[in-house]
Amino acid sequence: MLEGSQVRLRPPTAQDAALLFEWYQDPELVAPFDRYEPDTIDTFAAGLAGAAHDPNSLYPRYAVELRATGTTVGCVGWYRAHPVLEYIDVWYLLGDPAQRGKGLGREAVQLLVTDLFRTQTVHRIGATCDVENVPSARLLERIGFRREGSLRSALFHHARWHDVYVYGVTRSEWPSPPKA
Questions:
Q1: Is residue 17 part of a domain?
Q2: Contacts by 154-158 with C-beta closer than 8 Å and gap 24+?
Q3: Domain count of the fold of the chain
Q4: Is residue 177 situated within a structural domain?
Q5: Whole-model pTM?
Q6: Which of 50, 58, 80, 123 is the most exposed place for a label (fewest CB within 10 A)?
Q7: Which pairs count as long-range contacts for 109-114, CB under 8 Å and 24+ apart, including other chains?
Q8: pLDDT higher than 50, residue 74
């Protein structure tokens, strides 16, 4: 479990599966900026259960809950993004729109990245976001990720190709980077 001042990151439970699956199926939450869509709740629950042991899993590795109430408001994850290059990509979702703009996503991603630098041997952590997802780009830049470029027509959703920004931060750039 990872604790911040506002949020706690904890492994998702079987009880989280229905809520997280609902967020993944909501076209206003995930689909505007990504095309990931599990087929069924059973497929999702199985992926959620196996995520902790699969470095390539795109399923949530942590539920994001409010420390004050214990309410689950989002999820975050990471995966080995390339078979040869040694880096990890992170992703994040605040599923409860009422909780956005309060710094919760920022704190959750900071906790995740700090923990990855503490527990993994990688020297670079990356992230991508659709160029139209301005809040996501702003979050990454505010916590110290650098926009390294863009990939043209790299993500297909909503019947068209989308460009994505590529972000990264190295261990030496991260505030108080833990030793590997």
A1: yes
A2: 154/128, 155/34, 155/35, 155/130, 156/35, 157/31, 157/32, 157/33, 157/34, 157/35, 158/31, 158/32
A3: 1
A4: no
A5: 0.91
A6: 50
A7: 109/76, 109/139, 109/140, 109/143, 110/4, 110/143, 111/2, 111/3, 111/4, 111/7, 111/9, 112/2, 112/9, 112/62, 112/76, 112/78, 113/143, 113/169, 113/174, 114/174, 114/178
A8: yes
